[in-house]
Amino acid sequence: MSEKLNDSKTKALMAAEAASSKKAEDIIVLDVGELLGITDFFVICSARNERQVATVVDEVLKRLREAGIKPYRVEGDKEQRWVLIDFLDIVVHVFHIEEREFYELERLWQDAPRVPFDEQTDEALAGGGRA
């Protein structure tokens, strides 16, 4: 099981990095496996408008598909206010800022351990790797 968990954690961090590359804000990765039982990790992030929500979602899907990882389902992609991308072992939530403030998922899952993810470090690495 630890091998699956490590693989799930890698996917979650890959999704977080993809979101960060499109300027998603307040990115957190939560280890919900022990609390929820149906998935291992949540990736939660915010975008300032519907267009940015769509851009972040597209980038997450693109990056994970390039790694051979396909989503089980995508919900909310028509409204672009709260898009849920379900990869079974990880679930990515891309929120419009207003929806994130309203639903407060991180408060609901406050007992879940956070996986370290530093947006600034990721941006520096991404910028350095592309220059």
Explain this structure.
- The chain is α+β, with helices and mostly antiparallel strands and 131 residues long.
- 49% of the residues lie in helices and 24% in strands.
- It has helices at residues 2-21, 33-36, 50-66, 97-103, 105-108, 119-130; strands spanning 25-31, 41-47, 73-75, 82-86, 90-96, 114-115.
- Strands 3-4-5-2-1-6 form a six-stranded mixed β-sheet.
- β3 and β4 form a beta hairpin.
- It is globular.
- The protein starts with a helix and ends with a helix.
- Residues 121-131 have low confidence and may be disordered.
Quickly list its features:
six-stranded mixed sheet, 131 residues, 24% strand, alpha+beta, globular
Summarize the SSE layout with pairings.
Blueprint: H1 2-21, E1 25-31, H2 33-36, E2 41-47, H3 50-66, E3 73-75, E4 82-86, E5 90-96, H4 97-103, H5 105-108, E6 114-115, H6 119-130
Parallel strand pairs: 2-5
Antiparallel strand pairs: 1-2, 1-6, 3-4, 4-5
